[in-house]
Amino acid sequence: MADAQSGRSLVVDAVTHRYPSGALAVENINLDIKGGEIIALLGPSGCGKTTLLRIIAGFIAQTQGRIIIGDDIVDALPPNKRAVGIVFQNYALFPHLSISENVAYGLAARGIDKAARQREAQRLLELVQLPTMAERLPRQLSGGQQQRVALARALAIKPSILLLDEPFAALDKNLRLDMQIEVKRLQRVSGITTLIVTHDQEEALSMADRVAVLSHGKLEQFGSPSDVYDRPQTLFVNTFVGSTNRMPGVVVSTDRTAAKVRLDAGAEIIARPAGGTLSEGGRVTVCIRPEHLQFVGDETGFAGVVGMSLPLGATVVHEVTTADGSGVKVSQARIGETRALENGAAVRLAPLAPSLANAFPATL
Amino acid sequence: MGAAPASRDVTSYGMGLAAPLALFFLVFFVAPLLQLLWLSLHNDTVGLHWGLGQYLHFLTDPFSLGVLGSTLLLGAEVTAVCLVLGFPIAWLYQRVGPKLQTIIILIVLLPLLTSVVVRTFAWIVILGRQGIINATLQSLGIIDTPLKLLYTQFGVVIALAQVQMPLMTLPLITALGRIDPNLDDASCSLGAGSWRTFFRIVLPLSLPGVIAGCTLTYAAAITAFITQSLIGGGQMLFMPMYLYQQASTLQNWPFAAAISIIFLLAVLAVVSVFTTIGRMSRGYGDA
Fold it and tell me: Chain B residues contacting A, CB < 8 Å?
C-alpha cells in the first residue's frame, strides 16, 4: 500500500449512484476538494450525503464517475486499501477491545510491532486528551470520550482523508461545541483533508471551509459558508440554511445584478437575482432573512401589523402580518434600549440592503 | 413501570408462579435422580450391600472407559462439524435480504420438523452399501466397491451433525445479529482484511452464541440414543446404548445407575469447560 499522507486532495468526479431498484441516490456530483480543507456535506435526511460518504470510503461502488484521492483513482481499491479514516455516528468502537487496542487496531492491521503500536496509541490518546483511559473498555467511557477514541483510532492510520458521519449528533449541546472545537483543532494540527456529513447547518457553517449542500441526490451549491448563507444559488439552499422569509412577488424590471420586484405584500423593492435569469412580469419568490429586515419610519418598504414579539436574549423576534395576509419574522438585535413593540402596532419594513434580498424564479 | 406497590418485591410473584414447575421438577426429576444415586451405591443387583463397587468397576474397566471416551469424542466431533458448517450459514443469514432469510431459516429448522426416526432412516438410505452416495459414486466410476459409510464413526458424526444443526445455527444467528454492522466497516476502513476482521472482531463478539450452540449440540449429540444406535449399528457402542443394555437386557440396575451418574458428571464437566471459556472472553459481557 502506498504510504498514506495527510492533506491530499479529493476529487469527486461526476459521481452518480443508482440503487438496484433503479432509484437515484446521488446524481452527477462534482466536488473538487483541496488538500487540508474541511468540507461539510449538508442536507436533510435522505439527500444522499451518507451514500456519497460511503462511496468515497469504498463501501459502495458508484454506478458512474470517479473518486480521485491525491493523484490516484481509487475506484478499484477496497475500503481497507484506501487509507480513508472514518468516524461513525455511533462511533463503532470495538466493545471487546480496550481503548488502547481500539486505537492500535489499524496499526496492527498494517503489521506494526506491538511496542511501536502501544507507543503510537498512547501518543494519540494524549492528543485527544484521554491519556489515562488506555486500559478501559469502550462501555466505561462517556459519549464524548468514546468519540475522542473514535477520532484517535481513525487518525492512527494516518489517513489521507478523514470522513466524519454525523459526528456530533449523539452529543448534548454543550459537549457538541467542545467536540467541534476539538475536531477543528485536531484537523489544524494534522492537516488532514476532512469531510463532515451533517444535517445541522450551524455545524456545517461553523466547522467547514466550504459547504456542499445536497438535496434529493443533487448538489445544490458548493461554496464558502458566507457564500452559502448570503449568496444562495437556489431557493432550497436559501430556505434550508438559516431561516428566511419567503415573499412572493412579480418582476417589474431586471438586469444582471438587480431586479425590481413588486411584492404581493405591497411594496417595490430591489432584490438580487439569484439562481437563473428572471423575466419581466414573471412570478418570483423573494427570500429575506429575519435579521436582514428592518423597521423603517418613512413611507418606504411595506406595511404590516405586529402580532407577537419574542425576546430571545441577544435578539428580539417580531412576528409581523403583511397586507397580503402572510406572516414575516423580523429579528432585531438588542442594542441599548430596544423599543418594545405593542401587539397590533402598525409598522413598515424594508430589507437592509438590496443584496440581502434574493429573488428566485417561482416554481409552480 | 411503578405500578406495583413498592413494599411488594416483583420477584415474589415470579416465585409463586414458578411453583407448579418447581413441584413438577422435584417429583419427576430431582426425586428420580436421587433414587438413581441411591441405586448406584449398591454393590449387588438385589440392593443388599452398600458401597462404591459399581463406580470402581466402571473406572477400572477398560471397555467401559473406552465407551465413555468414544462417546465424549463423538460429541466433540459432532460439535466441531456443526460449528464449522453452521457458522457460515448464520453469517450468511445476517447478510442477505428478508426473502433469503426466510428460506435459510426454513432449511435450518427443517430437521426439527421431522421425526428423528425418519431423519435417521433417511441417512441409512443415503449412507448404505447400495445407498445414494455409493450408487452415485459407482455409476460415475469413481469407486469400484461400495464404501463402508453406515455403521462407522464417520456415518454417525455426519447424521448427528445434520440432526443437531439447528441447535448450533439458531444461537449463532442470534449472536451475529447482535453485532453492530458498523464494526465490520470500521475494521475494514482501518485497513483490516476479511480474515482479520473475522478473527479479531466477529468471532470474539459472537462467542456467547458459539458457547451456547456448542453446549446444546454437544449435550444433544452424546445423548442421541436413536441416531447413535441406528447409524452406529451393533459395532459402535456409545454410553446411552451401553446404559440401556445394562438396565434393560442385563437387568444390572445398580451398574446402569452408576453409568448414568458418571455420564452425567462427564457431561457437566464438559459443559462447564465451555462456560468457563466463555466467561474468560471479554465479549461475553456484551451480550
Answer: 180, 182-183, 185-193, 196, 200-201, 204-205, 281-283, 286
Neighbours of B154 (CB within 10 A): 15
Percent helix, strand and coil across chain A, each to the nearest 5:
25, 35, 40
**CATH number of A141's domain:** 3.40.50.300
Q: What pLDDT, on a 0 to 100 scale, did the predictor assign at position A308?
A: 84
CA distance B226 to chain A (A): 41
Rounded Cα–Cα distance for residues B238 and B233 (Å)? 10
B190 with A80: Cβ contact below 8 A: yes
Interval A71-125: pLDDT, tens: 999 999 999 999 899 999 899 999 999 999 999 999 999 889 999 999 999 999 9
Q: Residue B82 has which C-alpha cell?
A: 456443526
Size of interface A-B (CB pairs under 8 A): 71
Neighboring chain A residues of B190 at a CB cutoff of 8 Å: 80, 85, 105-106, 109, 153-154, 156-157
Quick check: A81 contacting B, CB < 8 Å?
yes
Beta bridge partners of A360: A285
Q: Is residue A132 part of a domain?
A: yes
Q: Are B182 and A88 in contact (CB < 8 Å)?
A: yes
Q: Which of A128-132, A212-216, B19-23 has the highest mean pLDDT?
A: A212-216
The count of structural domains within chain B is 1
Query: Among A133, A195, A135, which Cα is nearest to A160's?
Result: A195
Neighbours of B124 (CB within 10 A): 17
Q: What is the mean pLDDT of chain A?
A: 88
**CA nearest to A320, candidates A300, A299, A350, A298:** A350
Q: What number is the ipTM of this complex?
A: 0.81
What pTM, to 2 d.p., does this model score?
Answer: 0.80
Residues of chain B positioned with their CB less than 8 A from the CB of A104: none
Which residues face A357 on adjacent strands?
A288
State the CATH number of the domain containing residue A293.
2.40.50.140
Q: What is the pLDDT of residues B170-212, one digit of tens each?
A: 999 999 999 999 999 999 999 999 999 999 999 999 998 999 9
Compare all CA atoms of chain A with the CA of B204 and give the residue at the minimum distance. Answer: A96
- Enumerate residues 6+ apart whose C-beta is below 8 A from B83: B168, B210, B213, B214, B217
Low-confidence stretches of chain B (pLDDT < 70) are 1-14, 281-287
Residue A11: name the closest of A59, A72, A61, A60 by CA: A72
Q: Which amino acid is at A319?
A: E
Query: What gap in Å lies between CA B214 and CA B272, rounded to an integer?
Result: 12
Closest of B194, B6, B169 to residue B94, by C-alpha: B169
User: Which chain A residue shows the shortest CA-CA distance from B206?
Assistant: A96
Closest CA–CA distance from residue A88 to any residue of chain B (Å): 8
Residue A5 within any structural domain of the chain:
no
Domain coverage including residue B103: 59-286
